[in-house]
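Internal ticket #5521
Category: modeling
Description: The requester needs a full-assembly model to guide mutagenesis choices. All entity lines are attached below as received. Residue total reported by intake: 448.
Assigned to: D.W.
Attached entities:
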Amino acid sequence: VLEIENLQKIYMMGQVPVEALAGVSFKVDHGELVAVQGPSGSGKSTLLNLIGALDRPSEGSVTIGGIDAATLDDNDLAELREKVGFVFQFFNLIPRLNARENVELPLLVAGVDREERRARTEDVLEKVGLVDRMDHKPSELSGGERQRVAIARALIAEPNFLLLDEPTGNLDTKTAAEIMELVSGLNQEIGVTVIVVTHDPEVASFARRMIRLVDGLIASDEVN
Amino acid sequence: VLEIENLQKIYMMGQVPVEALAGVSFKVDHGELVAVQGPSGSGKSTLLNLIGALDRPSEGSVTIGGIDAATLDDNDLAELREKVGFVFQFFNLIPRLNARENVELPLLVAGVDREERRARTEDVLEKVGLVDRMDHKPSELSGGERQRVAIARALIAEPNFLLLDEPTGNLDTKTAAEIMELVSGLNQEIGVTVIVVTHDPEVASFARRMIRLVDGLIASDEVN
Ligand SMILES: Nc1ncnc2c1ncn2[C@@H]1O[C@H](COP(=O)(O)OP(=O)(O)OP(=O)(O)O)[C@@H](O)[C@H]1O
Ligand SMILES: Nc1ncnc2c1ncn2[C@@H]1O[C@H](COP(=O)(O)OP(=O)(O)OP(=O)(O)O)[C@@H](O)[C@H]1O
Ligand SMILES: [Mg+2]
Ligand SMILES: [Mg+2]
C-alpha cells in the first residue's frame, strides 16, 4: 500500500537549511497498524504530512497504491487525499463551524446527500462520545473534545488508510483507550491501514510494529 | 496563597446552560505542587482560567494572596496576571513572532532593558532545549517545540505562581521529564507554587497532592 524511498525534507530558514527528514525508507502493507515514535522535533509530523501528500519532499518518493504522489497534479492530489483520513497534531478544525459541520465536511465535499450526511455524522460523533457537544464550535469545546471532533472527521468518509498525529495527546487514559479501540477495530475488522504517531506507550501498544525516528532518520523498526 | 470558594462556571449555548464547574472549593498553600486530573471535558481548563483571572466565574470566588479577583478592575487584573505564569493548553503563541520574541514578550511588557531581556530569554530557551530554534516562528516549529516555547514564556518573568495546562501533552517521555524537573526545581528551591493539569501519570507523580475533577466537581483531593 505504501512505499517510502529515501525521503528527505529540508526547510530553508533564510540561508540555513533545517533537515527535518534526512533519508527515510520503509514499506507498509495493507492492513498494518504501525506506531511511529521519537523525540520532539525528530520529524514525525513532517513524515506524516509527506505521506498524506500535504507537502512535497525535497528528495525521495512516496508511493501509495502504486502511484507516486510527486507525479500527480493538484487535482489528483486532492482526490488521493480523500481516500486518506488525517488527524492533524493541532486538529485544523474550522473555527466558525460547529462540531457537526466540521465532521460533515468531507461528506459535503464528496456530494453525499443531506439525510445520509446527518445520520453518519451523528453516528461517528456518538462513537467518540460527543453527542452532547454537536452544536459547539471549537472555541466552545475543551481540548480533548476538539481532538475527538478531529478524529471523527477523519473517520467519517470511511478511508482505507488512516494517518494519526498524536491522536490522544489531549485525552485522559480512559478516553484515549476508547479511541484506540475504535481505530484498532477498524484495522482488524475491515482492514484499514493505520500509521499513528504517539508519545504514549499505551497507544503504541495497539500497534504490531514500531518505527522509531531520531533526527530525521529511522533508528529502529521492530515488531511490537 | 489561593482560596477557591464554591466556584461555578456556566456557559450559555443559546438557551441551554453548560455547567463546566458546578461548585469547587479548595485552598492551596504557598510552595505547594498540586496536580489536577480528570476526564476530558470535566472542567480542568475552565478552573485554571478562572484562577488565572482570564475569565470571570458565574458564582463563587477566587482569592489570590488575600485579593478577590472579582473586586479588581481590568488594570489591576492585568497586574495580577503578571505575577502568575500561565501555560495554555494550546499555547497561544503569537504567530508572527519567532520563539525568542514570544518568550521575551513578558519582559518587554514589564519594561526590562534589551540587554537583560536577551540574556534571560536565551537562558530560558536553553533550559527547555530550544537554543537552535530561537529564530523559528510557531509555524516553523514542531508541536513539542511550540509547547516548550510556551513553557519558557511562562517562566521568563520568574513568577511565584505557575498554572500549567497539560504542559507535556506534545512531548516525548524524556523531554516531558526534563520539563518537570525544571518546574519541580523551581518549586523546591525557590518555593514557586504550582498547579499542573495533566493526563500523564508520570507528570502527576511530581506533585505531592492530587485533585480529581469529574463533571465540574471535586471527586477526590488526596496526598500523593
Ligand atoms: N465557551 C464555551 N461554551 C460552551 N461550553 C463550553 C465552553 N468552553 C468550554 N465548554 C464546555 O465546558 C466543559 C469543560 O471544559 P474544559 O475546557 O474546562 O474541560 P477540560 O477538563 O479542560 O477537558 P480536556 O481534558 O478535554 O482539555 C466542556 O464539556 C466544554 O464542552
Ligand atoms: N516550516 C519549517 N521551517 C523550518 N523548520 C521546520 C519547519 N517545520 C518543522 N521544522 C523543523 O523540523 C523539525 C521536525 O519537525 P516535526 O514537526 O516533523 O517534528 P515532530 O517529530 O513531529 O516533533 P513533535 O513530537 O514535537 O511534534 C523540527 O525540529 C522543526 O523545528
Ligand atoms: Mg509533531
Ligand atoms: Mg483542558
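Resolution: model delivered.
Comment from assignee: Residues 37 and 199 of chain A are 6 Å apart (CA to CA).
Ticket closed.
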